[in-house]
């Protein structure tokens, strides 16, 4: 079974702690085991040597009695030693030469734990100077020869059984003390190692993990710590930094792709809009061209059939009708070409000093000749004698505005055109009392191909006002629109007297800008 299934080791710190404690515990167990064995061996050797020496002392105390084989006196000699708690003698055997037993003593404890036959087996003769020293059955047994006074031939043998209780207690004290000291040292060492691990490994890894999480969320300002270290933590930090750079690169590429996709989508939508507008324009243009062509064709056929029956006046009337239709086509063609040149950016203005009053008067006369059913009131007294502008483009501007005023006033024939100077601009206002423009259509009126909903059934291409806006802008001026549906419209053109110096956008306003938006022109023109 994996340890991670037993302990919830979800952090590196916990896993390192388990590994450190396990390794140190194993090392302690092995080293302490060897140390304990060695300590026990030293204590045992020292104790057994001491008991062996005491056994020899006892053998010297009874050698005369052994030599004389006086077994009745031996207990008196040994009694002080048996009563002495220092010695803790558990058993004694003394044999004379020839294996004659002279003395036997067994303590109560030894009688129940040590087989007496084992001690009897130690009667075999021993060479002079030879001794036996061993631990058996939980006791220390010392066997020494009993020599005569001059240390000649051995005259007997003595076996003394010593208790190992003190040896065991002493060893236990040393063992417990050693474990306590070792545990304290291990605890201190583990604490020190944990502090070191926490400072050098756990905390850096935790901070790098938090940093990577923040980086993955898109935080580009966060600083990656430990990048200057030369160990594995430094390698990880530099990897996180590279990851941060990769995230920034991916974000930038994604953003660029998103922006590009949006641009492509906008371009596609614009293209679809242009296509729709182009189809609409083609339909309107074909209708616009078809009408004057039909007039030309019908009038020509009538002249051809009845030329011999028509007088000069009737023929001239028919010719004027043809010329009007041709003029209408020429205006339409010129507007279309100008709009195309503006779209391509190839149209330019060539400013020169022009008489704006004379130009406007001429345009009004032309429009009166074309639109005999409309009344065109003009007041140009307050205009400057001359301005600096392109005469052909200015003529296009006001020809469009005048023709629109006439076209969208089928039931109210009064058209007012007024001019004055405001600041550095020559201001010309063209007013009609026709259909007017719905409020929601006003912001779109200067867009190409757009036509107001009130213009349904009236011929037009939707490029005239856009052309007016662009031409006025090229002159550094602006055009404003005020209109109320059902009451009419006012177009106000601002042209710098000194020529094109300012790039301004046209503005479109509704009737909510004035209580009566037509009072201005009405008061000026009347």
The gist of it:
This protein is of the alpha+beta class.
What's the CATH architecture of the largest domain?
A: 2-Layer Sandwich
- Major β-sheet, in short? 6 strands, mixed
For this structure, the CATH topology of the largest domain is: Heat Shock Protein 90
The N- to C-terminal Cα distance equals: 106 Å
Key structural traits:
single chain; 526 residues; alpha+beta; Beta-Lactamase; Helix Hairpins; Heat Shock Protein 90; six-stranded mixed β-sheet; five-stranded antiparallel β-sheet; 13 helices; 55% helix; disordered N terminus
Q: Please, could you describe this protein's structure?
A:
- The protein is an alpha+beta fold.
- The protein folds into 3 domains: 3-172, 2-Layer Sandwich (Beta-Lactamase), CATH 3.30.450.20; 259-347, Signal transduction histidine kinase, dimerisation/phosphotransfer (DHp) domain (Helix Hairpins), CATH 1.10.287; 349-525, Histidine kinase-like ATPase, C-terminal domain (Heat Shock Protein 90).
- The protein has helices at 3-6, 12-61, 63-68, 74-83, 108-113, 116-120, 165-216, 232-306, 312-344, 356-370, 391-407, 464-474, 519-525, and strands at 89-96, 100-106, 132-136, 139-147, 154-163, 352-354, 375-379, 387-389, 414-422, 425-432, 478-484, 488-496, 507-510.
- The chain has a 6-stranded mixed sheet, with helices on both faces.
- It starts with a helix and ends with a helix.
């Amino acid at each position: 079974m994996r340890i991670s299934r037993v302990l919830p080791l979800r952090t590196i710190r916990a896993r390192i702690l388990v590994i450190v404690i396990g390794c140190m515990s194993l090392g302690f167990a092995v080293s302490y085991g060897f140390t304990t064995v060695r300590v026990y061996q030293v204590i045992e050797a020292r104790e057994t040597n001491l008991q062996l020496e005491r056994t020899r002392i006892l053998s010297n105390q009874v050698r005369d009695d052994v030599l004389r084989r006086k077994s009745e006196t031996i207990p008196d000699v040994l009694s002080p030693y048996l009563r002495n708690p220092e010695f803790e003698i558990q058993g004694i055997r003394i044999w004379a030469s020839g294996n004659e037993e002279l003395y036997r003593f067994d303590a109560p404890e030894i009688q129940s734990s040590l087989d007496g036959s084992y001690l009897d087996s130690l009667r075999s003769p021993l060479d002079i100077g030879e001794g036996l020293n061993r631990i058996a059955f939980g006791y220390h047994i010392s066997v020494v020869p009993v020599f005569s006074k001059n240390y000649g031939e051995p005259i007997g043998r003595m076996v003394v059984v010593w208790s190992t209780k003190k040896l065991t207690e002493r060893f236990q004290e040393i063992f417990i003390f050693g474990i306590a000291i070792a545990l304290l040292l291990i605890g201190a060492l583990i604490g020190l190692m944990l502090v070191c691990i926490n400072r050098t490994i756990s905390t850096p890894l935790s901070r790098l993990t938090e940093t990577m999480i923040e980086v993955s969320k898109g935080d580009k300002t966060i600083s990656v710590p430990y990048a200057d270290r030369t160990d594995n933590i430094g390698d990880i930090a530099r990897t996180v930094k590279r990851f941060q750079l990769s995230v920034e690169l991916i974000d930038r590429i994604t953003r660029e792709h998103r922006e590009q996709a949006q641009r492509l989508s906008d371009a596609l939508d614009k293209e679809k809009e242009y296509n729709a507008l182009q189809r609409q324009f083609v339909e309107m243009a074909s209708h616009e061209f078809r009408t004057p062509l039909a007039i030309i064709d019908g009038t020509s056929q009538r002249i051809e059939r009845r030329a011999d029956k028509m007088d000069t006046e009737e023929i001239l009337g028919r010719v004027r009708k043809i010329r009007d239709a041709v003029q209408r086509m020429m205006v339409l063609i010129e507007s279309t070409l100008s709009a195309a040149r503006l779209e391509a950016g190839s149209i330019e203005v060539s400013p020169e000093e022009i008489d704006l009053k004379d130009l406007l008067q001429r345009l009004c006369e032309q429009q009166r000749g074309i639109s005999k059913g409309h009344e065109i009131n003009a007041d140009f007294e307050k205009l400057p004698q001359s301005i600096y502008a392109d005469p052909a483009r200015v003529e296009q501007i006001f020809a469009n505005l005048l023709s629109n005023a006439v076209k969208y006033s089928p039931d109210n024939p009064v058209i007012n055109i007024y001019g004055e100077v405001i600041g550095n601009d020559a201001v010309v206002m063209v007013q009609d009392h026709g259909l007017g423009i719905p409020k929601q259509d006003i912001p779109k009126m200067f867009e190409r191909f757009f036509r107001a909903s009130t213009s349904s059934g009236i011929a037009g291409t939707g490029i005239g006002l856009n052309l007016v806006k662009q031409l006025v802008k090229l002159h550094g001026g602006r055009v404003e629109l005020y209109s109320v549906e059902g009451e009419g419209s006012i177009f106000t053109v601002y042209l710098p007297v000194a020529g094109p110096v300012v790039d301004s956008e046209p503005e479109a306003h509704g009737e909510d800008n004035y209580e009566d938006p037509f009072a201005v022109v009405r008061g000026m023109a009347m």
